[in-house]
Write a structure and sequence with these properties.
It contains five helices and ten strands. Helix content is 34%, strand content 29%. About 12% of the residues have low confidence.
Length: 205
């Protein structure tokens, strides 16, 4: 059975303890959205939406949100990432500690569908994953920590039109899981799951 040490600095791969910072996840199995063909359609939507994205000013995009094809593509990409996070958490923690909630980050506003970070919450762990941009899946562990050692806050500027993020602060720094207006981005279930995990693991009421 694989899993993290109590301080989350080490991960047991079934044969030896590996520093958490050196954990590399193998290629994950295809997810439901990949097998259904929806991911290919999402990529096509994003390709269609890219010229229109660049054709609008940043101000106009901020007021109206992403174009419909971009929103569809981003929604499917988010679903794909949630499926991947479920598989990644199971690989690291085993089937008895499933993911309760998760969220993904986009790299920047100009190429908003480039994923670079994601966070997964389980009953006993908070894991920030770094995403392999070439393979398109969670590949490395940026942070693993117990819920009590983590703080989560939702930050926004101009009601989220200018900037919004789920900020995760842990033993090795702060990680901004960033989203953009006009797309599906909801950190509240992640924050709620983290708070419940803190209560469960510390016995707080």
């Amino acid at each position: 059975m694989s899993g993290f040490s109590d301080d989350c600095r080490w991960w047991w791969d079934g044969q030896r303890w590996v520093p958490t910072s050196e954990v590399v996840l193998p290629q994950l199995p295809p997810t439901e959205i990949e097998l259904s063909g929806k991911l290919a359609l999402a990529r096509a939507d994003l390709a269609k939406g890219r010229p229109g994205f660049w054709g609008h000013t940043l101000f106009l995009e901020g007021l109206l949100g992403f174009m419909p094809v971009n929103r569809r593509g981003l929604s499917e990409y988010r679903t794909w990432t949630m499926e991947q996070l479920t598989l990644a958490a199971a690989y690291l923690l085993g089937p008895d500690e499933p993911m309760l909630a998760g969220e993904m980050s986009r790299h920047d506003v100009w190429d908003g569908w480039t994923r670079n970070l994601a966070v997964a919450v389980t009953a006993a762990h908070i894991i920030v994953f770094r995403i392999d941009s070439l393979e398109g899946q969670p590949r490395w562990v940026g942070m693993a920590a117990r819920p009590k050692d983590v703080r989560m806050t939702r930050t926004s500027v101009l009601f989220g039109w200018s900037y919004q993020a789920l900020e995760v602060t842990g033993p090795n720094g702060r990680w901004a899981i960033q989203g953009f207006q006009g797309e599906k981005f909801d950190p509240e279930p992640v924050i709620d799951a983290w708070r419940n995990s803190v209560k469960t693991t510390t016995g707080a009421r």
